[in-house]
Design brief:
Blueprint (H helix, E strand, L loop, with lengths): L7 H11 L4 E17 L2 E21 L2 E10 L3 H16 L35 H14 L3 E17 L4 E16 L6 E8 L7 H14 L3 E2 L4 E7 L1 H13 L3 H5 L24 E4 L33 E5 L2 E2 L6 H7 L10 E4 L6 H6 L3 E15 L4 E14 L2 E6 L1 E6 L1 H7 L2 E2 L3 E3 L11 E3 L2 E12 L3
Helix pairs in contact: 3-4
Length: about 475
């Protein structure tokens, strides 16, 4: 391999040539990022980064079964490529048989752009956004608000090659925008966030206007005790809860009696009704505006993800269909153990089937209740019920007779997303949203607001 052989597809091909294992999967991830950060209505930093991570998965057949070894390294040079391949092979030979071993995937048509240069982002992605952000700063300054936040855009080109003949490539853009508005004395704070592919569909001046309204609501402060309240969960909060539900929807774990989706006496709850609302929770790699990888890209095995499934095609999957549990996540190995259909996880999540009502219309139809902004610090308490705990943040508002009348204190909550679906009285219009808690790992979501008649605010929190 010559010193100039540095194109991602050539690195993949060379690593496969170097392999002496019975099977080999090579994943090259080319990542570029561009970002802006601001504080007190002024830009503070910006930057652009580039990087490559190479993952080699070696499989070795033996009398007891097939073992696998996985080694990932960043910034691999020409001289380091062969040692990386040998390290993966040594890891495989030193491991016992892999429980999830399956034949490597075959029969998938190669990506036409496999040999093309990786996609890259740059500061140009903010060409229209940055001037609008400056206008938002001016409006906030005139209105006595201070804006803090960041905009981040990432492009990852993933090249997957295998000794079984697969040559696949996927380009994944991912943009996030988060803005906090604060009063000059820092006693009031409001948050808004957006997910975007290219920053052409986000308007910082519109976010500033939204935040100005929320800061205005917070001028009147009320204290409420812990308890159960009728609560309107905005799309961001719904996304954070249902993403965790998806992450917990392992078919194997359910079949083994270890999760909320386990059926008493054995088996799973697939086919059971979870909610009387006609809601469908689904993933689709081709969902417009939320496109994600159309095939499995697995850098490691664990749960219902398997490195042996790399390259397996992904198709639209309904996890909950019109209120009934329809699918649980399964690798090929997990499907074989449980008898469930193979259904790998997909990197987006959509909940639809609600009414065509905006969150504002749902507020107008509320006699007395709470309106949340977002959730954070979500942690699991009990896998058997999927009971979660966490905190509200950046604005909990009291709604009386269809109007927001003030801001109340924050709370700790204890709730299960599965139970919440069963108790939800209303779902609104589905819209793209940014899940605040999980935005470092999962950004492609579309959710409605939910009305829950008895959301459990288990204790008062002093958080902002």
């Amino acid at each position: 391999m010559s010193a100039r052989t540095n194109k991602p597809h050539e690195v993949v091909e060379r690593a496969l040539e170097l392999s002496r294992a019975d099977g080999c999967v090579v994943i090259a991830d080319e990542r570029s990022t561009a970002n802006l950060r601001w504080a007190g209505n002024a830009l503070t930093t910006n930057g652009v980064t580039r990087g490559r991570t190479l993952t080699v998965i070696a499989t070795v057949d033996g009398a007891q079964g097939t073992a696998s070894g996985v080694v990932s390294r960043s910034a691999v040079t020409v001289d380091e490529l062969e040692p990386l391949v040998r390290a993966a092979e040594a890891a495989a030979r030193g491991a016992g048989p892999a429980e999830d071993a399956q034949p490597l995937v075959t029969g998938v048509a190669p990506s036409p752009e496999f040999t093309e240069a990786p996609a890259e982002t740059s500061s140009a992605v903010f060409a229209d956004f940055a001037p609008a952000l400056g206008e938002a700063f001016a409006r906030a300054r005139a209105g006595g608000r201070e804006l803090y936040g960041f905009a981040n855009h990432e492009l990852v080109s993933s090249y997957v090659g295998t000794s079984a003949g697969l040559r696949l490539r996927h380009d994944q853009p991912n943009g996030t925008l988060e803005v906090n508005a604060k009063s000059p004395d820092r006693t009031r704070s409001a948050w808004a966030g957006r997910s975007t592919r290219d920053f052409k569909d986000v308007d910082p001046t519109a976010l500033d206007a939204e935040l100005a309204v929320r800061l205005g609501w917070a001028e009147r402060r009320l204290e409420l005790p812990a308890g159960r309240y009728e609560t309107l969960l905005p799309p961001s909060a719904v996304a954070d809860l249902l993403i965790y539900q998806l992450w917990s929807a392992s078919g194997r774990d359910a079949a083994e009696g270890r999760t909320v989706f386990s059926k008493p006496g054995g088996g799973t709850r697939v086919g059971e009704r979870l909610t009387e609302l006609p809601l469908t929770l689904r993933s689709d790699p081709h969902e417009p505006g939320l496109e994600s990888a159309p095939f499995v890209i697995a850098h490691s095995s664990g749960g219902d993800q398997s490195v042996f499934d790399n390259g397996l095609p992904l198709t639209a999957t309904e996890w909950v269909r019109r209120g009934e549990l329809n699918r649980l996540t399964t690798s090929r190995h997990g499907a074989g153990l449980t008898g469930l259909p193979t259904a790998p996880g997909i990197d987006n999540l959509i909940l639809d089937g609600g009414e065509d009502r905006s969150l504002e219309e749902m507020v107008a139809a509320t006699g007395r209740g709470l309106l949340l902004t977002c959730l954070w610090y979500i942690r699991e308490l009990d896998p058997a019920t999927l009971l979660l705990t966490g905190l509200t943040r950046d604005g909990v508002y009291l709604v009386e007779d269809g109007e927001v009348t003030g801001e109340v204190n924050n709370f700790r909550f204890n709730e299960s997303p599965v139970d919440l679906l069963g108790r939800a009285a209303e779902a609104g219009r589905t819209e793209k949203t940014l899940p605040r808690e999980w935005s470092d790992w999962f950004t492609r979501a579309a959710m409605p607001a939910l009305r829950v008649p008895d959301f459990n605010m288990s204790s008062v929190s002093q958080g902002v």
